[in-house]
From TrEMBL:
The keyword Acetylation does not apply. Residues 1-40 are annotated as: Disordered. CDD domains: UreG. This is CobW/HypB/UreG nucleotide-binding domain-containing protein.
Length: 280
């Protein structure tokens, strides 16, 4: 395994001076981008601000059954299967990424891209814990609201996935979003499979509060079940609310830090990978 140093891992920085050629702009100070879309899309942006990106104004949280479906594609040799892992700050996204690398790493080629606002903290954590060879771990510094880099202008992340695919031909690239709020969710054009991580410590109200991550992710993960008693959270209530908010879409309870529930999460990922690659 290669030595884990900051020198042998790429660290990218987003910002207003990055410029690519693309058909639509986002009203963010000249930051436009290009990517090879399998499907074209448009953004119905109601508001435009000048703080780095624009915000979608949501009419509602959407529903699991009507969520954007995975985009059919066959360019796996250019862009590996991507798993987006989003969720509020501190819910356990990085702990889940580490656990998935450890669980899947022997049987699947894995790479990881972390997103942080102004640091490379999560990348550092994964390097220090030897989640993978350091070369397979990349950090994107988003420099703004994290959801911009996973939904509105995900060109930096797509570029990383393409580069990692060319270098390592991985089966799976795990993309960790920066910690965000309940309004954030991955673009389907970036993530083939979308996991949203919330935690018990946030209170058992979180599933019923909804938001696109809770309602429209392919898999809702509820982490830190070991803390339920400490914070007075009812897991049964969370399960019931999640079921209701997601029209019976899947929810898995885990303890990422202790490796509990990880095989179940991994199984969802692998099944979807096989289905999308036409292997099952
Ligand atoms: N008790 C408990 N703590 C956990 C569990 N999983 C993660 N943690 C802890 O929760 C804290 C936050 O975990 P992270 O994995 O950094 O969370 P994150 O969602 O990646 O955080 P950001 O990227 O900063 O948004 C860390 O101190 C973890 O050790 C768990 O299952 N149980
Ligand atoms: Mg993290």
């Amino acid at each position: 395994m290669a030595e884990n140093t900051s020198e042998n891992v790429k660290f990218l920085k987003g910002g207003p001076f990055t410029s690519h050629d693309h058909g639509h702009g986002h009203g963010n100070g000249g930051f436009s981008h290009s990517h090879d879309h399998v499907q074209s899309h448009s953004h119905d942006l109601v508001q435009s601000h000048s703080h780095g990106h624009t915000h979608d104004v949501l009419e509602g949280p959407g529903t699991y059954t009507d969520r954007d479906q995975p985009i059919y594609r066959s360019d796996w040799d250019k862009r590996a299967f991507t798993v987006g892992i989003g969720g509020p700050v501190g819910s356990g996204k990085t702990a889940l990424v580490l656990a998935l690398c450890q669980y899947l790493g022997d049987n699947f080629g894995i790479c990881v891209v972390t997103n942080d606002i102004f640091t490379k903290e999560d990348w550092q954590f994964l390097v220090e814990h030897k989640a993978l060879e350091a070369e397979r771990l990349r950090a994107v510094e988003t420099g703004g609201c994290p959801h911009a880099a996973i939904r509105e202008d995900y060109s930096l992340n797509i570029a990383e996935v393409r580069d990692l695919t060319e270098l390592f031909h991985p089966d799976i690239v795990l993309l960790e979003s920066g910690g965000d709020n309940l309004a954030a969710n991955f673009s389907r054009e970036l993530a083939d499979y979308i996991i949203y991580v919330i935690d018990v410590a946030g209170g058992d109200k979180i599933p019923r509060k909804g938001g696109p991550g809770v309602t429209q992710s392919d898999l809702l993960v509820i982490n830190k079940t070991d803390l339920a008693d400490a914070v007075g959270a009812s897991l049964a209530r969370m399960e019931q609310d999640a079921k209701c908010m997601r029209q019976d879409g899947p929810t898995v309870f885990i303890q990422a830090k202790h490796g509990l529930g990880i095989p179940e999460v991994a199984e969802f990922i692998v099944q979807t990978l096989k289905t999308q690659r036409g292997e099952s």
